[in-house]
Specification:
Elements: H1 7-19, H2 22-29, H3 33-47, E1 52-54, E2 59-61, H4 63-90, E3 95-101, H5 109-120, E4 124-130, H6 133-141, E5 147-150, E6 159-167, E7 169-174, E8 194-198, H7 204-216, E9 222-227, H8 230-238, E10 244-247, E11 258-263, E12 270-277, H9 285-295
């Protein structure tokens, strides 16, 4: 008997590939484990390729299975987007623009974009997801996001990157710190301090910029704490656990017992860029990109 490959095969395969456990995958799919095993075996017969290595203790992907998993992530994500877009169009909307961002982008760039979209394209819906740089790159590559706002110098060749906002850096000090805007002479005055920084994994490019600010002042900072959230960094500074360096615009919206000294004379700048996939087929993406680049 000949079989044809159907969408359900892809969904079944993806569940097993992610869980690497037939019982858990079957429970996730609300089907029986023997039924799931039969569907996977049928899929392998249709494709004439072994997708999983099965043993009593574990399930693992073959090289062919690894390849198929990556391809299906794109296919299923795009199918999900298509279904959502059709629903929105049927409801009178032009579509949905999915936006990823770093926290600092919400201080200036993202709100302006949302306002502009609302004014010029009121039927476009938007969804927001705060993610790290690398998570945004991964999501844009896999068609889970249309736009990302990142602090990166380079991205994979499949993506386009354009700077949209350049910011200065500021030092964050406890309210009662001996230094203030008038007395501050330069970063060398903080060489004995402990520093609280954004995690290197969260934003390697930004981390390197901050390190270079200190190194230009003749010292390597002693990093006592790392975080991915500005609120956490400010709280640690507020409690005299160290000092920090942040993009200046990030201080907006916080009311804490800390003070900021803008580093106007240094060469380093905090650059925020927008990224999107070159072959993204979401029809509303061009509107977001055009508004951003016309504003920058």
């Amino acid at each position: 008997m000949s079989y044809q490959l159907e969408l359900r095969h892809f969904r079944y395969f993806t569940a097993v590939a992610e869980e690497l456990h037939y019982r858990k995958a079957a429970e996730r799919l609300f089907i029986s484990q023997p039924g799931l095993s039969r569907q996977i075996k049928q899929m392998e017969e249709i494709l004439d390729a072994q997708l999983f290595i099965r043993s009593k203790k574990k399930v693992s992907l073959t090289p062919a299975g690894e390849y198929l998993k990556g391809e299906l992530q794109f296919i299923l994500n795009h199918l999900e987007l298509t279904q959502k877009q059709l629903k929105l169009i049927n409801q009178g909307s032009s579509g949905n623009l999915r936006i990823g961002f770093l926290g600092s982008a919400m201080q200036h760039v993202v709100p302006k974009l949302l306002v502009k979209l609302q004014e010029s394209h009121p039927n476009i819906k938007t969804s927001l997801d705060e993610l790290s740089n690398h998570a945004q790159v991964d999501a844009v590559l896999k068609d889970k996001l249309d736009l990302g706002f990142v602090r990166l110098a380079r991205v994979p060749k499949e993506l386009q990157i354009k700077p949209v906002f350049e910011d200065t850096f500021s030092v964050v000090l406890p309210k009662d710190h001996r230094l203030n805007r008038k007395s501050f002479k330069g970063m060398q005055e903080l060489k004995e301090e402990s520093f609280i920084l954004f995690s290197q994994d969260y934003s390697p490019h930004y981390f390197d910029k901050v390190m270079s600010i200190c190194e230009d002042a003749g010292f390597t900072p002693k990093v006592s704490h790392r975080s991915v959230h500005a609120q956490t960094i400010f709280t640690l500074v507020e409690n005299n656990l160290g000092v920090a360096i942040i993009p200046t615009s990030l201080q907006k919206g916080f009311d804490m017992d800390v003070k900021f000294i803008e580093l106007k004379r240094i060469k380093q700048r905090a650059q925020l860029s927008v990224i999107w996939k070159k072959d993204n087929r979401n029809p509303v993406l061009k509107h977001g990109v055009n508004l951003l680049l016309n504003e920058s």
